[in-house]
Amino acid sequence: MILFAEENKSRWCAxxxxxxxxxxxxxxxxxxxFAEASGLGRSVTNPARPFRHPCARSRNATDARCGGxxxxxxxxxxxxxxxxxxxxxxxxxxxxxxxxxxxxxxxxFILSSVRAEFRARFVRSRLGGAWMIVHPLAQAAIFAxxxxxxxxxxxxxxxNDRFAYALYLLSGMLGWSLFADVVTRCLTLFIDNATLMKxxxxxxxxxxxxxxxxxxxxxxxxxxxxxxxxxxxxxPPGVYTLWVPGLMLLTxxxxxxxxxxxxxxxxxxxxxxxxxxxxxxxGFWLAPIAYTREIVPAALRPFxxxxxxxxxxxxxxxxxxxDRPPDFVVVGWLAAIAASLLAVxxxxxxxxxxxxxxxx
Length: 360
Prior knowledge:
Strand content: under 5%
């Protein structure tokens, strides 16, 4: 009778999911736990004597097996939780810390974003990517038509070439367009991608790399068009043109350093976005792009060297127009300036990264 009641109660526990912990340690069977807790498992002849379930007689072996399983389960749970915590912390640290390691892990995201930006810009355009080179070439053509008669004779060693000033403009515009493009992109970079920064967890330095990659692709296409125009105008590229890819990287580094700092400032002070285009106009005319250094009064020439783009433009002139290597001292100073600007920009970006999302 007792066993029958005990069996019915065990079935009721199995259906309802109720579990009773036994007062006697080591009883792992649900039937034994319920029999002891309810008192139905007491012996009729000796009520003080508890019912001895078969599980209790082999509890040492059972507990050894269950204890081993419990330890393994607990160890596996701890490993999974630690791995999940490490992955979450790693993603958060990668999102906050602008390091190249985190950016390298997201390289496919960066490349696909550059490709998507390139396609979306010219998705329904007849000329497609040709528009990226039409604007700077049109600007150079306007300057050449207006100032060719005045500036053509001022170029040292190229006074007899009627296309000399056009070539001078093209080589200078090549360096300036890369710098201006990357600064303009980085200026509104975080404001334009505010929704993406709030909804996705990724290293935010990837946004700056995407902007730099898009500007570099545009400038490479412009460089190829300029080489073609040089050949058409009777000045085929020389061997020192191989310096141009290195100069592109230096110019890109300077632009990213300045643009990243301005982009962070623009998040907190929106007036920066209105002032920078004006400053870029002054920067264009304070560099020997549309004129030569020789026509500037001698007392004002040292002020041209305060503009780092002056060094960039003159290095482009040396490599593409005058068929000579750039000044190594100038290149060294450019590299030092680029490294310093990038270091300061990364430190500023890292400290302001956590607060930018709240402000946006």
